[in-house]
Amino acid sequence: MATLSAKDFKSDQQVRWCPGCGDHAVLAALQRALPMVSSALSYDKERYVVVSGIGCSSRLPYYMDTYGFHSIHGRATAISTGIKVANPWLTVWQACGDGDALAIGGNHFIHAIRRNIDINVILYNNHIYGLTKGQYSPTSKFGAITKTSPYGTVEHPFNPGSLVLGAKGTFFARSLDVEMELNAEIMTAAALHDGCSVMEMLTNCVIFNDGAHRVISDPEVRADRTVILRKGEKMLFGKDRDKGLTYDGSRLKGVRIGKDGQNLDAVLVHDPTEDNIGLQMALADMKGPDFPVALGVIRDVADVTYDDGVRDQVKSVMEKSRIHCVDDLLLSGTTWEVK
Length: 339
What we know:
The chain has 12 helices and 11 strands.
């Protein structure tokens, strides 16, 4: 297998997102991650297929030099499911937005997670409908002023992490568009995960919702308002790494680390592979001002996948069946001869 680079995954199409859009950074991270995935799993480029629905994020297949399928609004998950079940040899990457996946596509989204279909879902979350010019989305903040909520939304937003874990998802990660290194790490981990991997990418829409994540993405405050979770590392954050998270079995608590290391032993060590959905739900739900927002792989546990289950079931039925061709089928019931 030839060694692949980021350049091998760049198509010849002009990238038509607005200058400054967070989608550019997610695209670059994916193009950096896939060569690492190919090296780790010995994948040729022909194994990759990128699927999308409708929205700004859904232009992704045009910018990737892979197989691609630009589907319809909200149905990317259904198309991804069909591709993976029909041809498990393919590695399926799906691009979708917070409106595309969580509104019209919400039913497909939660059931793909519940079934644990081996697809990699990149969920771009900018808290707005960008392509259709600024309507509020299922993740828009309560009270948000938008084109369709001029007096403020009266709807409570989804937390995608809570939604994924509530559907018993086996992999959930979150990151900011500007965290390029972390994004490539997350995408590589998602590819290595056998099951439905959901990656929430907090992206900025410079036209219709500029600064949507500024409260945590601004370089001046990012270290204090986010905590990057990595397996085997303590949950420390802050500019001086002097804050940490503890857990008493029911709730998280933030503590300050003393100069003498006081409280350091009590700080949690992150292990996304531990099946502790209560703790992982708490991490996914954290928000300011009391807690930092969790970034990185929050949950990564093993379970049976839908596509493996279908394959094994079909194989078992075929081995036991007396019907192996159309003639066998036609002659399997009551028959008679016409003279």
